[in-house]
Task: inverse folding
């Protein structure tokens, strides 16, 4: 058991545990910009199906949102490029929808993670960063989001063998 034991860090502290087979945790980071406008950056983790591309996964998510969120609309088309110091492949999409009678706008960045023996042995792990707000994005929110996704470094994980 000690061989697979890791120190797993949370925002609030850390725990010692066996290395998880899969981490499906969600982080909802809430912010208020200098102009007083509130916004969220969400971080989700999931896996691609076998032989599924990042673009196919994104299209699948868009179809799910289109069928489950009232007034769902895409803003533009899928953008593909690389981000961050590791030059990771990313697909970005912008959309809007209604939730609980309120209009929401969001930008999602889906990033394929590099292979790792513990965190991504099947080489299918992805992480999604979502900027979400009830209003149009402010310049501050956009810059903050760009800084977040461009600073993502999968090599700087806090999941450490002990």
Result:
């Amino acid at each position: 058991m000690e061989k697979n034991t890791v120190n797993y860090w949370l925002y609030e502290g850390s725990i010692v545990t066996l290395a998880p087979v899969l981490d499906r945790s969600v982080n909802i980071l809430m912010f208020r910009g200098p102009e007083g406008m509130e916004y969220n950056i969400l971080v989700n983790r999931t896996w691609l199906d076998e032989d599924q591309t990042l673009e196919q996964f994104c299209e699948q998510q868009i179809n799910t949102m289109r069928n489950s969120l009232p007034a769902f609309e895409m803003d533009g088309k899928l953008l593909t490029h690389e981000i961050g110091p590791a030059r990771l492949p990313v697909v970005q999409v912008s959309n809007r929808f209604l939730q609980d009678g309120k209009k929401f706008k969001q930008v999602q960045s889906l990033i394929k993670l590099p292979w790792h023996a513990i965190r991504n042995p099947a080489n299918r792990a992805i992480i999604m960063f979502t900027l979400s707000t009830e209003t149009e994005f402010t310049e501050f929110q956009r810059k903050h989001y760009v800084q977040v996704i461009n600073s993502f470094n999968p090599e700087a994980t806090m999941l450490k063998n002990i």
User: Anything to note?
Assistant: Residues 54-68 form the longest helix (15 residues). The CA atoms of residues 8 and 27 lie 15 Å apart. The chain has a mean pLDDT of 90. The radius of gyration is 17 Å.
